[in-house]
Design goal:
Blueprint (H helix, E strand, L loop, with lengths): L5 H6 L2 H5 L4 E5 L6 H14 L5 E5 L2 H12 L5 E3 L13 H10 L2 E5 L10 H9 L4 E3 L11 H4 L5 H11 L10
Helix pairs in contact: 4-5, 5-6
Length: about 180
């Protein structure tokens, strides 16, 4: 995963890809307008290699507003939702689930989160499309005792298979 800047665009992506990079990160906040968010994603979509995915770090309410646009792009997306109010997803839940049904998005669970602080939309997506859930670096990990394992949302084997579909295994070289 790479956070792309103007310098990267002028150097090209071959160097990053040779080191195993296969995705670019976009960070958006609740204060970003839908138009600004669409422009940012479109800009990356236009320049990134087609084999790369775009990881979206943004709150669930913005996900609902962008889903119809993102579902129509010929690109895989990985959603790593930022913290947002638990009730903010309710009006857009059908649109978000529709986007997951369209098949070009994965939910990436990252960070240490307890059951009581876990966003309800994460659980809803895990229940609706467990074949679209991957586990990010660090905690949480796919092991016995995790809420998705206990509640039969995502098995460790399925999480691994999902990640293999999202992340192509490029030949990589050590950075150091």
């Amino acid at each position: 995963m790479a956070l792309i800047n103007g310098h990267d665009l002028s150097l090209g992506f071959d160097h990053l890809q040779a080191h195993g990079t296969c995705g670019a990160l976009v960070r958006l906040t609740a204060s970003d307008t839908r138009a600004r968010a669409q422009d940012e994603v479109q800009r990356l979509h236009d320049v990134l290699p087609r084999t790369w995915h775009i990881e979206l770090d943004m709150p669930w309410d913005l996900v609902g507003r962008l889903a119809p646009f993102l579902a129509r792009l010929d690109r895989r997306f990985c959603l790593a939702p930022a913290r947002s109010r638990p009730d903010a997803h309710e009006p857009s839940a059908p649109t978000i689930l529709w986007w997951f049904d369209m098949g070009n998005v994965y939910l990436k669970l990252t960070g240490s989160q307890s059951d009581d602080g876990f966003h309800p939309m994460n659980r809803l997506v895990c229940r609706h499309t467990p074949d679209r859930v991957v586990l990010g670096s660090g905690q949480p990990q796919a092991e016995a005792g995790c809420w998705w394992s206990d509640e039969a949302f995502v098995s460790p084997g399925q999480a691994d298979d999902n990640a293999r579909r999202l992340y192509p295994f490029h030949r990589s070289f050590p950075l150091h």
